[in-house]
Amino acid sequence: MPNPKRRHSNSRTRLRRTHDVIRLKSLSNCSNCGASVLSHRVCPECGYYKGRLIVTIKAKKETKK
């Protein structure tokens, strides 16, 4: 297998790694309930997408303490 003839400099290595950063997901607000939602996804709180009901969400059961 071929091996590199010379060592890469630190700046060259860092330039290559600049695209390896983890970026934050862009959140938007649901137009129906106002919850934070990933863009182009159905709202997990109310089940609406672009003003239309897509998924019916069941009510959460209350736990007794």
Q: How would you concisely characterize the structure shown here?
A:
With about 60 residues, the protein is of the alpha+beta class.
Key terms for this structure?
65 residues; alpha+beta; two-stranded antiparallel ribbon
Average pLDDT:
89
Percent of residues in helices comes to: 10-25%
Largest sheet: 2 strands, antiparallel
Large-scale geometry: elongated
- CA-based gyration radius: 23 Å
Structural class: alpha+beta
Strand order of the largest sheet: 1-2
Count the E strands: 4
Task: Please mark out the parts with pLDDT under 50 across 5 or more consecutive residues, or reply none.
Answer: none
Order of SSEs: HEEEE
Description:
By secondary structure, the chain is an alpha+beta fold. It has a domain at 24-58. The chain contains one helix and four strands; from the N terminus they run H-E-E-E-E. It has a two-stranded antiparallel ribbon with strand order 1-2. The radius of gyration is 23 Å and the shape is elongated. The termini are far apart.
SSE blueprint:
Blueprint: H1 10-16, E1 27-29, E2 36-38, E3 48-49, E4 52-53
Antiparallel strand pairs: 1-2, 3-4
